[in-house]
Write a structure and sequence with these properties.
The chain is mainly β. The chain is built from 1 helix and 25 strands. The termini are close together.
Length: about 325
Amino acid sequence: MTVTGEAAKDLESPWGVAPLPGGDLLVASRDKGTISRVAAGSGAVKQIGEVPGVDPGGEGGLLGLVLSPDFASDHLVYVYFTTASDNRIARLRYDEQRPPGQQLGAPDTVFRGIPKGLIHNGGRIAFGPDKMLYAGTGETGVTGLAQDKKSLGGKILRMTPDGDPVHGNPEADSVVYSYGHRNVQGLAWDKDKRLWAAEFGQNTWDELNLIEPGANYGWPEAEGTAGKPGLRDPVAVWRTDEASPSGIAWAEGSVWMAGLKGARLWRIPLAGAEPVAEPEAFLQDKYGRLRTVVALGGDRLLLVTSETDGRGSPEAGDDRILTLTVR
């Protein structure tokens, strides 16, 4: 793994990142509630707009960011954000012809009512190979929500781009895809379209899970590998001070996982659904807390630091988006 450059610097509380056609990037600021565009090559950062209704605080704010699968024609940007009452998902039209700073249309809320808290708001959204929208949520510190299938907290959700339950979900008329999660902030698919998710443990074990529809991932009855009937064990685990994982991406046969408290990038080499070697750490303490990993195709990744989120020790130039080549 090699750091090949710096796509952007001097960002404030970056969280979600979405590559645009042509190589520029959209970046969400968790605490400012704004979305900016980063120019490829120069790294120039220009604000394109603000998401109204964002209520930052604790681990909440403007979190996940993803382009519509049909972005080339519909120009829609999807966001996951915390409001005064809940976490929700909205889409906004991005019009480059409008004046700078006013290029986002009014938000069209596609899904609301995800529990919010000072901690564990989840926040990662991604479109799957099936063009459906997936969201990782947290249990807001109220552990019982994770096992309550009627609650949207501590879940992975699967919905249509309009926010409706998908035909074929585990339960009809429900967007709940998997449950028993503590706080899911990483979602990625491998080349065989398997879904992987990273989540925070409590005091002992952070997890990388292979997600199966309808499966129970154990929280709060299990943390890490428990071997309990009816509960799905993780594929890999870490001590919480070595990981506290956020974003993940799949590239070159491995899942790459960003660590916040662990301040390192983990590589988990896979053969199909099985790890083929112990996880390997890179960049330990070199760039501080790491938030988001984005696959650009082939052997290229983006890695977003998270030193300005109130829990880091920012230095000149933080926060950054690094470009990586991996193998």
